[in-house]
Amino acid sequence: MAKDQEYHPLMSEPSDEAESSLPPVKPTWTSKLSRTVLVILLAIETLALIVALFFLLRRTHHTTCTMELDPHRVLYSPALEAVEHEVQVYNVGFTGDLSPFQIPSSPTLDGMWNDLYNFGISRITKDEAARLPNKTHAIPGDDGYYIAELDVFHNLHCLNKVRMALDPDYYPDWCISTTNNWIPSQKNATEHVSHCVDWIRQSIMCTGDTSVIVWQWENFMNASIVKGNVAHTCRKFDKLQDWGKEHMLHMAYDPTVHIEDDIVVPIFHNNFD
């Protein structure tokens, strides 16, 4: 309130005389128009706010990308041609049902693990690279071919590193820091294993095996106990291995050489951030 204005308190009850002396007020067309415009503006602002809140609530963490896909559709991979299914029963992994991989750390065990994926970096044609949902790089010195890796082989690499970190006496280079023991010299191993554990977590959640573990009654225990030796629908791993071996790199890959190409990444209808 400006200092040069005089303040007049409101009367609690106006007198009849004052009311009768005032002429009736009729709304003009300009006042009606102003109110109409105001209502329209408020409606537009409200709608804009609702839309903004809708998209804000739909935004996810920047590492999360989702696509709405037909339940029977899968993203393109050049290795889809090698996919065949079979029914397998896992080794439970306890005494009496151990797998061949459950032996002490040794050159023999290392060789078994390496044989699972040591051909995992692949070369694919330009046509195959152009059909990928993500762009990859050309291989220097190998015209017409592009570098790629099936995630199954990366998962195995990661699990192998976690296995090695569990036996630091045999694999001192993979000794990682613990909650109360930070080892500066092992920073790379610690970060690598952390990456691998979380990558495997995401992969397990992504593939979502819906095979059913059951409980069965055991008379000798007088109780029902969990049974892990159940059937699973699996992709034949040896077929994927054959594909990987057929598509191995012919030379060492030089990541410092940049090669321009005309491949355009396919556009998907999605809510990528």
UniProtKB/TrEMBL annotation:
Residues 1-25 are annotated as: Disordered. Pfam families: UstYa. The chain crosses the membrane at residues 37-57. GO terms for biological process: mycotoxin biosynthetic process. Keywords: Membrane, Transmembrane, Transmembrane helix. Pathway: Mycotoxin biosynthesis. Coiled coil: none annotated. Belongs to the ustYa family. This is Tat pathway signal sequence. It comes from Mycena belliarum. The lineage of its organism: Eukaryota, Fungi, Dikarya, Basidiomycota, Agaricomycotina.
